[in-house]
Every structure is written in C-alpha cells, then in structure tokens.
Amino acid sequence: MKSGNQAQVDKLEQEARTALVAVDDLGALEEFRIRYLSRGQGRITALRRTLGTLPPEERPRAGAAINRLADAIEAAFEARRAALQARSLQERLAADRIDVTLPGRQRPRGHLHPITQTLREIVAVFGELGYRVSEGPEVEWDRYNFEMLRIPQDHPARDMWDTLWVEGAQPILLRTHTSPNQARVMEQQGPPVRVVVPGRVYRHEAVDATHEWMLHQVEVLAVDEGITLADLKGTLDYVLKRLLGPQRRTMLRHAYFPFVEPGVEMAVDCFVCDGAGCGTCKGTGWIEILGAGMVHPDVLAGVGYDPDRYTGFAAGMGVERLAMPLYGVPDIRAFFQNDLRFLEQF
C-alpha cells in the first residue's frame, strides 16, 4: 500500500504529464515550467517543502521519490520544448520559403523625364534633316559664351544673360545658352556646317509660368554658301510643326541678338487658349519658342570663315517651351518640382 507522500507524488506526476501534453506553443510551455518546475513557486518545490512534516524515517524515501519526479518531469519538459522549437522552425522556414522555380519579381521601372523625351524628339527631327549633334561644356569660358558672340564685357546685352560665375583667375561661368558651341564647332571645321547643340543652360530669370533659372536648350547652326532667311524660316516652321502638329501656327517677328543680323523670334499660337489670350501666354495668344537669326558676319570672320562667301543661320530653342504645348503643361515649373503624380503621366 502506497504511503500518503507517494500518492501525492504519483498524482502530481500524472497531472503534470497531462498538462504537458496539452501545451501547444512555447509561451504555454513557459507557463508550465513556472507552475511545475520553478524553484520559487513550482508545484514540485512545494511538495519538497512538505518533507519536514514527515517522520524522520520516511523522509529519505519520500525525498528520493520527489527527486525522481522532478527528473522525469524535467526530461519530459525538455523533450516537449525541443519538439515545439522544431515545429516553430519548420513553420518559419515554410513561411519564408522561396520558390526558385518561379520567375523573379520585377522591380518597378522608371522612364525618361518628359524634358529628356522632348530633347530626343527635337534632335531626331533635325537628324532627319542631316544635322549632327555636338555637345559643349556647361561650365564655359567668358570668351566663348560672350566675346566670340559679339558681346564684349561692357556690352549692355550681357544683362540679358546674367548668370552664375565661377571664381578663378580666368572668367568662367555656367553657360547662359548653348550658342558658345557655334564658335567651338566652326573653329574645328570648315563649311558646310549642320549641327544641333543640346544641353542645360543657366540664367538669372524671374521664375514664372514660362521662365525657369535652369532650362534646356537646343542650338541650331547651319553655315554654307547661299543660305538665306527663307531657309531659316522654312526649317524652323517644318521642325515645330513636326513636333507640335500641323495645326499649330507659327509667327516670325523681329528681335535683337548680338550674334545674328537680322535677329528674329519664332512663336507658336498658345496651346491653352488657341490664341485667344490666357495666363500662360500672358494674354498675347502666342508663346515664344526660340530666338534665331542670320549668323553675324563678325562671328563668321572671328572663326576664320569668309563672310563674303558664306552665310548661315542660328537658332536657340527652349526645350521646356516646346514640351509645354507638346504635353499640354501650362506651367514650366511643373517639370522640375519632382512630383511623381505629374511625372508618371509621361
């Protein structure tokens, strides 16, 4: 017949094993440990404390039974913990499993900025007409940016191209137009010349719906025998209508630029109001697209060309000004505000 202490041990063992079988996660397992195996408040520790109430001759046998119980429950606890940890690991591995047989997930791709798209379209149209691309430096010598284009240091026309200067022994600036490459190209080759010069330029502008302090420009230069203002007008009218559509009207009007004579501006009818007058065109019905003119004889002579034999025309078109009617954008500032809601439309 079992003693009262042995009966308590057997009952506690049965209770602990039944509770351990019901444990289904590591959190519940920790609660089991605290309840049964904790040295401070565990059920087995509480049972050990009852040894002092037994007769002295029964204590060794009762203590040994409690120790066997503790060893058995701890072994069962460790086995259950190992099983739960293995199951948890398998669940994590299954959740994080990568199916290498599937194609890779493609990352979202961006696209060209609308100004870059417009720039490439302009260059492509001129390429069809036989023009080659010639890029020049954005940080330019004063000599090329002004002096060789008939804009000496004391010339009031410099106020039209106020910009950012770079400190140094020689006068250097962020170029105000891509026209400096006119002189660079003509210094390097003789006529005939057919080039376009795309790139960024920098000016001290009052920023509004049609002006920005940093903009993109395409310089056009054609030099040969017998080139006239009619060639300039026909070429630019063709290019603008190829880019903006045959329905657009163009207007050529007189303008002053020191490096051409005569100088002209070309405008297109406002794409927002169709020429009626609005905020974008400042009520005029027209949007200026480019400045142009016949290359001044002094510029030709300055690079070693014979102005009595050769003539040519030059034009500088603002890419943003062309992108506005091309994409229906009424404010030039939208192109550089980095708003993805705007840029993702193109």
Give the topology, please:
Elements: H1 4-22, H2 26-36, H3 43-48, H4 59-95, H5 114-128, E1 132-133, E2 139-141, H6 142-145, E3 165-166, E4 172-174, H7 180-188, E5 193-202, E6 214-224, H8 229-244, E7 250-254, E8 260-269, E9 286-295, H9 297-302, E10 311-318, H10 319-327, H11 340-343
Helix pairs in contact: 1-4, 2-4, 5-10
Count of discrete structural domains: 2
Helix content: 25-40%
- Helix/strand-derived category reads alpha+beta
Number of extended strands: 10
Spatial extent as radius of gyration: 43 Å
Envelope shape: rod-shaped
Describe the main β-sheet briefly: 7 strands, mixed
What is the first-to-last residue Cα distance?
A: 92 Å
Mean residue pLDDT = 86
Find the CATH superfamily of the largest domain. Bira Bifunctional Protein, Domain 2
The fold-level CATH name of the largest domain is BirA Bifunctional Protein, domain 2
* Cross-sheet strand order for the largest sheet: 1-5-6-10-9-8-7
Helix-strand string: HHHHHEEHEEHEEHEEEHEHH
* Low-pLDDT residue intervals, each spanning 5 or more residues: none
CATH class of the largest domain: Alpha Beta
Number of helices: 11
Strand content: 15-25%
Q: Architecture of the largest domain, according to CATH? A: 2-Layer Sandwich
